[in-house]
Amino acid sequence: MTANGSVMSSAKAKMAEELAEAPMVVLRQDEALVRPLAELVDRLKKRPPRVVVTCARGSSAHAAAFGKHLIERCLGIPVAPAAPSVASIYGGGLRLEGELVLAISQSGRSEDLLALTRSAKRSGALTVAVTNSENSPLADTCDVVLPICAGPELSVAATKTFIGTATVLARLVAQWSDNDYMARAVERLPERLASAAALDWSAVLPSLAKAPSLVIIGRGPTLAIAREAALKLKETCHRHAEAFSGAEFMHGPVSLVSSSYPILMLTPTDEAAAGMRELAVELRRLGSDLFVADGSSDVVGRLPTLTADQPEADAICLIQSFYAMAVQLAQRLNVDVDRPRNLRKVTNTL
Predict the structure, then answer these.
(1) Partners of residue 290 on adjacent β-strands
(2) 295 CB contacts (<8 Å, ≥6 apart)?
(3) How, if at all, do strands 52-55 and 240-245 pair?
(4) What DSSP character marks residue 297?
(5) pLDDT at position 9, please?
(6) CATH code of the region 197-333
(7) CB contact burial 132-141 (16+ within 10 A = b; e otherwise)
(8) Are 67 and 169 in contact (CB under 8 A)?
(9) What residue segments make up the domains of the chain, in order of their start?
(10) Residue 149, helix vs strand vs coil
(11) Would you tell me how many other CB atoms lie within 10 Å of the CB of residue 94?
(12) Assign residue 92 a region: left if phi > 0, alpha if psi is -120 to 50, beta otherwise?
């Protein structure tokens, strides 16, 4: 029996099967995104927005946060997440004439996202749907559709769609900013994602299995990854997890640190790594139960990572390794990872 009273299937978890499909998702994007990306980037270069607004929920919101990092770092354009309820509940709108609105949704059917996107389009914004459903109301609403190409995803916990969405945003920013370094790294992602899923993170399982709460720390490109990881632990393992920036953790949350309170640190492979390693030293001094995904550090609690390639692509590989570990943790806890309690695949928020 599972923790919620249902019998766990002896077959391989659908979540595990679907995260293994992520490399093919990225490969399918190579062809599917050529025309819409070229059209969109041409429009953006001719009329650059002053601000980019994202509209998303759940894992898609974490992908949007990843896109925020990409756009602000590579293009210097501020990115802000919209509150869909401004349109869906309060009947208002935002002044977005000439700006870019990225509406990110796996299903493309959430009413609140649709309301905000339609309002933005009426105000004169360039609206872009990043969706796994090209025949959805969101796709029909937007000026440009960027398909995620994930195919059907049956497990409640989104894995390949999150990776696909993050990759779509990396492709967009690489082309928009003429960043060949990032574009080439995206081309290498399929093989690297397959390798990342095979990395052994089992060292963290005993601590996570016995602790009801934990912290996940990221910085730069890995902050959005930390937020996604925290959500997945709630969804699939019934473990309370909270994500923090490495820059914020010492401002109050550090009082949570104890030997019985696990901390998972996702170290980026860019300029932010040095500060994260300094934080790791301090957390160990304080007696934390710390596990660090850091390929450049050979310390107690180190989780293996791929050899560094390009920071944003490396961050995408980290979540793939995490997903594989989450499946193992759910099995250890006897939780049916494909049918988390109280959850449905599509959540329709008004």
Answers:
(1) 263
(2) 269, 304, 305, 306, 307, 308
(3) unpaired
(4) -
(5) 41
(6) 3.40.50.10490
(7) bbbebbbbeb
(8) yes
(9) 14-192, 197-333
(10) coil
(11) 18
(12) beta
Tell me if 134 sits within 8 A of 146, measured CB to CB.
no
Query: Residue 260 is encoded by which pair of tokens?
Result: 């019985």
Return all residues near 113 (Cβ < 8 A) that are at least 6 apart.
55, 56, 57, 84, 103, 105, 138
Burial of 104: CB neighbours in 10 Å, binned 0-12, 13-18, 19+: buried
User: What was the pLDDT predicted at 4?
Assistant: 40
CA 30 to chain centroid = 20
Angstrom distance (rounded) from CA 306 to CA 322:
13
CA distance 267 to 251: 19
| 177-228 pLDDT per residue, tens | 999 999 999 999 999 999 999 999 999 999 999 998 999 999 999 999 999 9
In the chain, at which residue ranges do the beta strands (DSSP E only) sit? 52-55, 79-81, 100-105, 126-131, 144-147, 213-218, 240-245, 262-266, 289-293, 302-303
DSSP for residue 9: P
The residue type at 45: K
User: Which three-class secondary structure state does DSSP give residue 136?
Assistant: coil
Q: State the average pLDDT over residues 306-323.
A: 98
Superfamily of domain 14-192 in CATH is Glucose-6-phosphate isomerase like protein; domain 1 (3.40.50.10490)
Residue 183: other Cβ atoms inside 10 A? 16
User: Do 14-192 and 197-333 have matching folds?
Assistant: yes
Token pair for 202: 């089992």
